Amino acid sequence: MPLSFAVALCTTAHASTTTHANPFIHHGTTQTVKASGTIQLGEMEPFETVRNEDGGEQTGTGDAGTLHQGLSVQLDSAMGYGGVDGQAQQTWSAAPNRISFSGLVDVSAYGSVYDFDGQYWGHGYTETTLSHRFELEDGHGMRLTMNSTVADYRDDDFAFSLSRLQDGEWQAVWTNTVIFDDVAMYRDFSVPLFLSAGQYRMDMTLRASAYIDGTIGGSYGYSGRTLADVTLSPAPEPETVLMAVVGLGMVLALRRKGRAEGTASVQNQL
User: Fold this and answer.
1) What is the pLDDT of residues 165-182, one digit of tens each?
2) Residue 74 domain flag
3) Domain count, the chain
């Protein structure tokens, strides 16, 4: 899935370009970490099916801290053994001059049976989510830095979005989604953004999944792992001024284009 980009440039020609180093006013954060897993042995005669499962979820609402949810499901019986292991973790910090996030989800499933009539099945899932709202009183140049890695397995992905509240609706400023079959599973970049004054929301989701299915004669399975680091901070003053000038130029160019089209329309009516 391609990366999509839309910069929140000057919404008016007189947008402010304040240079103070602490532009963020934080309004609230909600974050969760989840992990669940199931292992099952049996399903075929003469074995009786046995099953074990576990899961957990944690939720946080602060502007800093770490959430972690571990997963370890084990099953050992006369017909075979199996297990699902994984973790979901995120560290989050929202300071007046910096927003930073680091997340990891990974999970693996394994199993084996001792008889040709046996069968085993296992599944694991881990996820982290975060939604943070903040405000800028003035337009400001920012630097968005992002690193993410998604393993080459099904159901693994990382999604990021930065949105601005416009006329009562959240409008995308920047979105970046990386999925397991993306051509670029590794994203490492740093980009400038000029953000107008207003309210913003930053959302992040990391997911990983594992699956195994087989008999004593063979098996099929995969493990999942997704990592991401994101930082949003004020850009250096020269970069901020340059972004503001470029944004103003675009606004003026669009206005000139609008006037030219209006003039042509009037002439066509004469």
Assistant:
1) 999 999 999 988 887 665
2) yes
3) 1
